[in-house]
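Hi,

I'm pasting everything inline rather than attaching a file, because the server keeps stripping attachments. The sequence lines come first, and each chain or strand is labelled.
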Amino acid sequence: MPSLSDFGIVDETIEQVPAGQVLVKVDTLSMDAWIRTTLDAEGFHESVTLGSTIRAFGIGQVVASSDPGFAVGDWAYGLLSAQTMALMDAAALTKVVPEQGVSPSDFIGLLGITTGLTAWVGLVAVGEVQPGDVVLVSGAAGAVGSCVVQFAKARGARVIGIAGGPAKCGFVTGLLGADAAIDYKAGDVGTQLARLAPEGIDLFFDNVGGEILDAALDNLRPRGGARVVICGAISQYQNLNDVRGPKLYLRLAERNASMRGFVVSHHAARFGEAIKEISQLIRTGKAHLPEHVVEPIDRFPEALMMLFTGQHSGNLVVKP
Amino acid sequence: MPSLSDFGIVDETIEQVPAGQVLVKVDTLSMDAWIRTTLDAEGFHESVTLGSTIRAFGIGQVVASSDPGFAVGDWAYGLLSAQTMALMDAAALTKVVPEQGVSPSDFIGLLGITTGLTAWVGLVAVGEVQPGDVVLVSGAAGAVGSCVVQFAKARGARVIGIAGGPAKCGFVTGLLGADAAIDYKAGDVGTQLARLAPEGIDLFFDNVGGEILDAALDNLRPRGGARVVICGAISQYQNLNDVRGPKLYLRLAERNASMRGFVVSHHAARFGEAIKEISQLIRTGKAHLPEHVVEPIDRFPEALMMLFTGQHSGNLVVKP
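And the predicted assembly:
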């Protein structure tokens, strides 16, 4: 686990904006678990080098442009960094054009590639959720989990969320509308799950890994066809060199089930469909993703660690 | 691990054959890894009780019948036991009618439900093998693995088999026709695999589990769509209460891949297609499954343990 003393703030002056680049005033950065893996020498994603900035998806407004595709005042989305101002290749940014009822901040929340689109792709494209499915979601009070709970409900599933503590469980069954919540701090998850879904679960959307994954595997619907979608494993990111593999993976064979991983960008062909569906949920008030805001930029390292200590509900963001 | 002293032979007299039953002279019993799991108090399959016979799939000839569906001399296939003569419900048996070029023993080999049909279902129905795929098979010299190697070659895949020792590897690349073999006793499997399949594997058919599963996960084709088919985990059957889960299961997420388990009987709708394809391979001399015969029935326990010590190639059977 990194400590706060591992991070530092550096002031730099941006003298000019070269051709093809734009200067973005960072508005909001999305704090996602994958960021932690870039701090290892060898993680899932390209690692950052010592002394460089830490990457994070975010949105901002263009304050200077040397590219014809962006004008001052445009909103832009992309892989920014822990910065107040970001000098970016225009090609690495997507112009965000808010539609009726959809705000710029939705593009790092319910419509964000690491949040809402990840949730939709995992649930729909990979997990093939069906109406009437019993869907289990770990990390249900987190950003991705919050989206999964709501999207699954909107598609007619029965949804059980796993979260830590009564406040988060209340958030999951309250604002998010899950049918039930399991407090993993209040007793054995498998026992609670077996009581809530005695015939087993059809779909498990996993953000956590570890023992919770085994509890879910042990409660897959026996008749076959259950799906485990591996989105992440936040319980294991502190030590990717010695991950606790699912001891009960043979349940997949015993129960004719599957475990499916995904890279969200490999499913870009379906983003249009996802954005249409999610935008409609936003407009009709059927999806919400409260922001847990940490500010200013100096507290970026603290926010990163909050992801792992589980102090927040909803979408953890940093505003510089 | 059971020891030979855990087993005993009991003589019983069969006085009569009740209505609806038949008496079968057991010809050949198929020694399959799942049998080991029935010796645990709680395994994959229904456990046997102390003092009862141990179940095994097999074929035999009817010597007395009190059921109109079977005549003396008919060949029958079913879940028999470690017996010389089996008194069976007729409804629990399938009459085996050998076609041209297909012998009764093929029904516990290339066409057996626990051998050839398991291989076909895992490879085709679950693994969705495609021509040109790089297919990796663990336990490639075993009964299921031998079938997988040959069926995958017949469907146009490039096949790499994993086996223990030069003799078995020679069997895999020789009689079975694999493109390459990896001797897991001769060095790190992952290193050998990376050399043989530098662009990664498309399909891994796993009979073994443990470290070999991790080596395969680490070498899945990065572009996405690779499949891991979990057929068994013979390396783990001695202690199902503390299975070594795949530490690298997150490769599924990183590489947009899936891990799929199956219960062969859930795919019974495709057995007809499988039997047609495999029978054609048998008739045209494109599939072989040598029997490693242990006899007589007294050596059944010894044969069961051979499955785990890896002393055989091909289809391990007991002839009473």
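Residues 271-283 of chain B form the longest helix (13 residues).

If the labels don't parse on your end, tell me and I'll reformat.
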